[in-house]
Design goal:
Oligomer: single chain
Helix content: 25-40%
Low-confidence stretches: none
Number of strands: 16
Shape: globular
């Protein structure tokens, strides 16, 4: 069974809002675009692995996706954790393109793309560290750790994987995501001792889900040009800003597209960049709405929680606002 689903990362949502609203004449926009591209690629790789894991029998396992667990003064992250009664399995997904050269002697992964070499941390070592941190977490919660295995999934089907030293661990630990259904069964042959009851499996899953702390970056720490971010409602068709609200619909002055709900994305952008609270005045200013009655009607039509009254009233996103 799937004990914890993989959700669209808040970090990516924030970066998307920043890139949409970043002033065009600021050279730093390219930095945020590059970071957003990397994060999206990573998420796509994780979803690719999820697709292939969906094709295996879940009846004897619990799968937890996208864990971020506090440890000491920091956190450790696990892309995918499979919990069985015999062993635990950590899978880290990489969606790198190009030629991937594993050099375990130096704990390095070299990526060659367009004749440019880049050095990345050894993902096998990363999963070993995650296994050690997970073991410490289980001991802290009075659970005797079963064997913890680790794998690295390469999700980009066009990537070329090389193991120039013919290292046995690289051959054993690294696989293509499409091979997931054939990579997991051998662990059942290796670990045949029944170590965890079904209640133990549920307890481990429950403790990890309870401890999970999702990463929510603080835009305040990103040195953003808050006073220069682009305001207005963006057209979902041509992506131009400056839609006008007329007779219950937003109309794009550039392409003529009409929609009744374009204000929702604009408000999401505000919450993601400026914080989870907005007043009617801020709403009118950010969306460039002249009528206070129109603003009030739009705010009351969305999944928002209102606090205060009259001029002191503010609005925050409801439980399902970002769904």
């Amino acid at each position: 069974m799937i004990g914890k689903k993989r959700e669209y990362p808040k970090e990516i949502m924030i970066l998307e809002a920043i890139v949409r609203r970043f002033p065009l004449d600021d050279f730093r926009k390219a930095e945020f675009e590059k970071k957003l591209y990397r994060k999206r690629a990573g998420y796509k790789g994780e979803k690719t692995l999820d697709y292939y894991l969906e094709q295996i029998d879940h009846s004897e396992m619990v799968i937890l996706y996208d864990l971020r667990i506090p440890i000491n003064r920091t956190h450790f992250q696990i892309d995918t954790l499979i919990i069985t009664t015999y062993f635990l399995l950590i899978i880290d997904s990489k969606n790198y393109a190009g030629t991937l050269i594993f050099l375990p002697e130096f704990n390095q992964l070299i990526r060659v793309q367009n004749e440019i070499e880049e050095v990345f941390p050894d993902p096998i070592l990363q999963t070993k560290i995650q296994a050690s941190q997970l073991k410490a977490f289980l001991i802290k919660h009075h659970i005797t750790p079963p064997p913890i295995e680790n794998l690295v999934a390469i999700s980009n089907s066009q990537a070329i994987i090389k193991n120039p030293t013919n290292d046995k661990e690289v051959s054993y630990r690294v696989f293509r995501s499409a091979n997931a259904a054939f990579k997991i069964p051998p662990f059942y042959q290796k670990h045949t001792q029944f170590l965890l009851s079904k209640n133990d499996v549920k307890k481990i899953a429950r403790n990890l889900i309870k401890a999970h702390e999702p990463l929510v970056p603080d835009p305040e720490s990103m040195n953003l040009p808050f006073d220069k971010m682009v305001k207005g409602v963006q057209c979902p068709a041509c992506e131009a800003f400056g839609m006008d609200y007329r007779q219950g619909k937003w109309t794009c002055n550039k392409c003529g597209h009409k929609t009744a709900v374009a204000h929702t994305q604009a408000l999401r952008d505000f919450f993601l960049i400026y914080g989870a609270s907005i007043t009617s005045k801020q709403f009118r200013d950010f969306l460039k709405i002249k009528s206070s009655s129109t603003a009030k009607r739009l705010l009351s039509s969305m999944d928002l929680v209102s606090l205060g009254s009259n001029k002191g009233r503010s609005y925050s996103p409801g439980k399902n606002f970002f769904d």
